[in-house]
Amino acid sequence: MVNPSLRGGFIRKPNETMRLVVTTFIGIVFGFFLGVSFPTLSLTKMNLPSGLFPSIDLTYIEDKYSGLSTRAFFKAFSSLRGNRGDFNQVYSFNDTKIWVPTNPRGAERLPPGIIASESDFYLRRLWGLPSEDLTVTPKYLVTFTVGYSQKKNIDAAVKKFSENFTILLFHYDGRTSEWEEFEWSKRAIHVSVPKQTKWWYAKRFLHPDIVAAYDYIFLWDEDLGVEHFNAEEYIKLVKKHGLEISQPGLEPNKGLTWQMTKRRGYSEVHKDTEEKPGWCTDPHLPPCAAFVEIMATVFSRDAWRCVWHMIQNDLVHGWGLDFALRKCVEPAHEKIGVVDSQWIVHQSVPSLGSQGKSEAGKQPWEGVRERCRKEWRMFQDRISNAEKAYFDSVGIDPPNSTVR
């Protein structure tokens, strides 16, 4: 039998055991709080030799982990208290699970109240309050595709547009700084890409969400005489007659291709005409109605949203587009027209032809003109094939079709 006195060194009194347990628990709790609080210590304020951290930005470490330590502290503290409500509110704000399928594509993770899905060409200051940037908010946009050789013509044209218009110049010859001789040029928007066309620019810089701030968009060439044109009066007539797509009437003695666009001296607006026999299969279809040319076209905001999507990326001259504009408004023969009382002169300056390249013995302008004609045929084929594919997919006969 073992002597109890021999085991006395291995047996502790109950109160000593309890003190050991309490001390151990307090040590664990103290160590835990010390651990979660340690990252908040400012290493940059500690007097440590720089050689210990040769390639570490101590300020970055402090900033990176300070938020984490605070969050961990609150989480641990709330857990001990049995009350996590305050922390959950902070945490859910910093780690939201937002998904709004009705937002624009790609922006589903954003709260709807922060989304700015549209833009504009309004110039902004680099100082002051944003709400005080604009003394005038233009309601209309006018674009010209220009070369510097036509500067006098463009200067005269721009002066026909009031401060209600944003002026946007597309420079196909790469010369922009020379235009600073005109005072209005300092307030205009300049986009320069050499040897490109009006429709190339329009597809890339006039997305409907970019020009959504404007009620009407003017897409004009550079060779237009505007002596008899007033932009504000033009807008009034377009609204009065409900035109979604329009153009000014053309002086009949120069640069005229179609009867539809010829100015009539006895009316404000016309929406149809008579053409040569056999040219119009229907009096409500181009070129007898629902038709304007692409040299000086004016679109409403809604019409432009449709037309922009119809512009083909590789068919840059736009030939044939004027015959298809009717697809973007309904009824087209009532909402497409020519404004007679505000008329222009088409000067027919072949400036863009000089931007071509001589090939196979042809002059630069000949290659450009040949490309225009090819694009027209290609566009017609694409429209026809796309419509046929659609009607086949839904199992119905195309309009005016008598056979499947």
From TrEMBL:
Membrane spanning stretches: 20-41
Superkingdom of source: Eukaryota
Keywords associated with the record: Membrane, Transmembrane, Transmembrane helix
PANTHER family (alphabetical): LYSINE KETOGLUTARATE REDUCTASE TRANS-SPLICING RELATED 1 (PTHR31210:SF38), OS06G0731900 PROTEIN (PTHR31210)
Pfam families: DUF707
Keyword Transmembrane: yes
Organism: Cannabis sativa (Hemp)
Protein name stated in the entry: Lysine ketoglutarate reductase trans-splicing protein
